[in-house]
Amino acid sequence: MSRTVIDLDDEALEAAAKELGTTTKRDTINTALREVTARYRRLRALGEARELAAEGALDIGILLDKSKYRPSGGPDDVHDAGAHE
């Protein structure tokens, strides 16, 4: 971890701490950096998924159809080992 001396906008830092639920400057800044990075990664992934869908390489309808990957609760949908023993 590096140590850096910087001038901060105290009001922005306080607002970020409230939003993030952090209590120290260090935690606020580190959490904010992680959150921003994760957000932009998700945005890129969403953009890539949209491109795939536009090209016909990805069927969003299949992904959104939860019945395709979640049990409906019937007796035939039990997947636990030993459930039918």
UniProtKB/TrEMBL annotation:
Residues 66-85 are annotated as: Disordered. Residues 76-85 have a biased composition (Basic and acidic residues). This is Type II toxin-antitoxin system VapB family antitoxin. It comes from Streptomyces tuirus.
